[in-house]
Specification:
Structural class: mainly alpha
Oligomer: single chain
Shape: globular
Number of helices: 14
Length: about 375
């Protein structure tokens, strides 16, 4: 009688026994996940938790400074009462009309851009692969400009910006011949699309009336001035829809960092995960553009800063989200309070930060022989 030994098939992550809640190691290499039932599994790293708490403290400090500094600032001693709804007179105007909505929009737009960049860079595995670097910001500016010139008072400028951003992303995707995978082609195609979009924008600014051109120039540079609670509602609605979907694919993205073959073997379905992640990234970017204009480089720098602070692998979605919020709130605080530069569009400050960082990344990629 011949005996046969059956070899058990390795269980994919979906099949493995794990507790209904809490942290459990699922993969080799020290990766741990905070699980909620069998649906949600968030990558957890102790260092990331500490840095996230520090980020929250810095965000609170920057937000407090935004509301209290300057000639129109709310006194720090009365700020808690004002936030509780007991403000009147000047304090009510500052909180409800002037700085409150602006701060809430900055937090939401920064968070959306940081998360968007983290998703996009995780999918492309490319530190240069943020939506704004490959032409989204320039395309959004061109779309806004075209709408302002051809369809004034008919189509909202933010709608034109979203359509322009979507068209720019499509052109980059098609022109590379390989989607978003090749780093060198991605950068070259993005530069080409961005240059074409900028040319269109400059023509429109030259062609429209002076008053409209001034307002348009402020918008296409990225601005948080004159934001309202409607803008805040828009961006936070986008976050409310996209963040839960991002949480559902967080574990698959983390596994995908190890390569498509291993991710497929572990049941992470990398192709469908990438499609969902890119879609969420573009929706988040479009939401931020619709309320604040094409603010550049937050989606490039926030994920990279998060990754370097944690010194670990993975997309670091939560930390990139917090970093994006902190960067934009800090940039807007500078735009409001720096002497001689008051009320410059906040996008100018993020361009200065991101341009320097982009130069560093390009130099590093060139030295590695990627470009």
């Amino acid at each position: 009688m011949t005996g046969r030994t059956a070899t058990a098939r390795p269980k994919a992550p979906e099949d493995r026994e794990r507790p209904e809640g809490g942290a459990a190691p699922l993969l080799p290499g020290g990766r741990r996940y905070l699980t909620v039932g069998r649906v949600v599994a968030l990558p957890v790293r102790p260092r990331s938790v500490v840095i996230a708490l520090l980020m929250l403290v810095l965000i609170a400090v920057a937000a407090t400074a935004t509301l209290t500094l300057g000639r129109l600032g709310i006194p720090l001693a009365t700020l808690p009462d004002a936030i509780a709804g007991n403000a009147d007179g000047k304090e009510e105007f500052v909180l409800e009309r002037l700085r409150g909505p602006r701060l809430v929009v900055a937090l939401g737009a920064g968070a959306a851009l940081g998360l968007s960049g983290a998703l996009f860079q995780s999918v492309t595995r490319n530190p240069l692969g943020s939506p704004d670097v490959i032409g989204l910001a320039a395309g959004a500016g061109a779309g806004a400009a075209i709408v302002a010139l051809l369809l004034p008072d008919t189509v909202p400028v933010p709608t034109g910006a979203v359509l322009g951003a979507a068209l720019a992303m499509t052109l980059v995707y098609v022109s590379t011949g390989s989607g978003f995978r090749n780093r060198g082609r991605l950068v070259v195609a993005g530069i080409g699309v961005a240059s074409l979009s900028t040319a269109v924008t400059q023509y429109v600014v030259y062609a429209v009336e002076r008053d409209k051109a001034t307002a348009l120039t402020s918008y296409i540079n990225g601005s948080l001035a004159t934001r309202s609670w409607d803008h805040a509602g828009t961006i936070w609605t986008v976050l409310l829809v996209t963040v839960p979907l991002t949480v559902l694919i967080a574990r698959r993205l983390d596994i995908g960092e190890m390569g498509d073959d291993l991710a497929t073997g572990l049941g992470a379905r990398p192709n469908s995960t990438k499609s969902v992640a890119v879609t969420l990234s573009l929706v988040l970017s479009a939401g931020a553009v619709s309320v604040a204009g094409p603010i550049a480089f937050i989606s490039l720098t926030a994920p990279q800063i998060a990754k370097r602070l944690t010194r670990g692998t993975g997309p670091h979605l939560a930390l990139a989200t917090l970093t994006g919020a902190l960067l934009l709130v800090a940039a807007d605080l500078a735009a409001q309070q720096l002497p001689y530069f008051e009320e410059l569009p906040v996008g100018i400050y993020t361009m200065a930060l991101g341009g320097a960082y982009l130069g560093y990344l390009l130099l590093r990629e060139w030295r590695k022989g990627v470009l």
